Inverse folding.
């Protein structure tokens, strides 16, 4: 099977506290250097990055291969590193060590409102997200009615700035965009928990259809074990930034996670 995602020795270290060089302009220099992945101009000659008690490893030496069309459920306690992993794959943050390779375009649903501009209307945000994915305006226009219908948002509200939307409307529109615009990989992090039960079931069915019938790869993080078991064909368990149980059939992963939680 062709690979959609390959992760090699991926680690992420966070230093607790704040940058403090003693002067505001130096702090800004150091901050910009980190954003641009350049050498810190305020680092002393010969000084090396120190991984000490003032920080923690959110991820540690993660190795993973996800095949095209797989539906991988990632489970673990809060703070296990699930969201950090998805943020790295979505290129929201960069790894401290290791690397990853992604084949295809990614749509991410990491939290309510991700990728939306609050001052733009729902319709304008649909076009903006399509442009980010490299789609032409006519391609988005062709799918517009289908997206609005799936999101179950009143047609009168689609031309209202999304800052006035409820969290449920945010999620429904965000998922509808991700499900209907052209991409190869969909990443979802617990966002469907905000929607009502009917929409959760509808969204789960849509993700399953996209993977089974259209070859789309899905990475799904949720504390809802039933949703993971229903949607995914493979599972993975993280614990304190490390792989506790490597990629395996979802039934095996869910069974092991229930043992960890003490669920019969």
């Amino acid at each position: 099977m062709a690979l959609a995602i390959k992760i090699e020795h991926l680690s992420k270290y966070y230093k607790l506290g704040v940058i403090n060089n003693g002067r505001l302009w130096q702090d800004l220099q150091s901050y910009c250097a980190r954003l641009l992945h350049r050498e810190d101009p305020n680092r002393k000659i010969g000084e090396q990055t120190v991984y000490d008690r003032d920080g923690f490893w959110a991820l540690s030496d993660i190795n993973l291969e996800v095949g095209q069309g797989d539906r991988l459920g990632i489970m673990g306690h809060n703070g296990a590193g699930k969201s950090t992993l998805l943020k790295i794959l979505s290129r929201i943050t960069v790894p401290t060590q290791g690397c990853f390779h992604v084949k295809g375009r990614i749509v991410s649903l990491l939290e309510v409102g991700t990728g939306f501009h609050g001052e733009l209307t729902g319709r304008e945000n649909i076009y903006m997200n399509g442009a980010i994915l490299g789609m032409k305006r006519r391609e988005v226009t062709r799918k517009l009615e289908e997206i609005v219908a799936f999101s179950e948002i009143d047609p009168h509200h689609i031309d209202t700035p999304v800052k006035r939307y409820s969290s449920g409307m945010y999620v429904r529109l965000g998922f509808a965009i991700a499900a209907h615009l052209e991409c190869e990989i969909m990443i979802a992090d617990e966002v469907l928990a905000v929607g009502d039960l009917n929409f959760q079931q509808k969204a789960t069915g849509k993700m399953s259809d996209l993977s089974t019938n259209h070859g789309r790869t899905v990475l799904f993080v949720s504390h809802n074990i039933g949703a993971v078991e229903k949607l995914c064909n493979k599972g993975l368990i993280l614990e304190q930034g490390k792989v506790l149980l490597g990629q395996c059939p979802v039934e095996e992963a869910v069974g092991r996670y229930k043992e960890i939680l003490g669920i019969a």
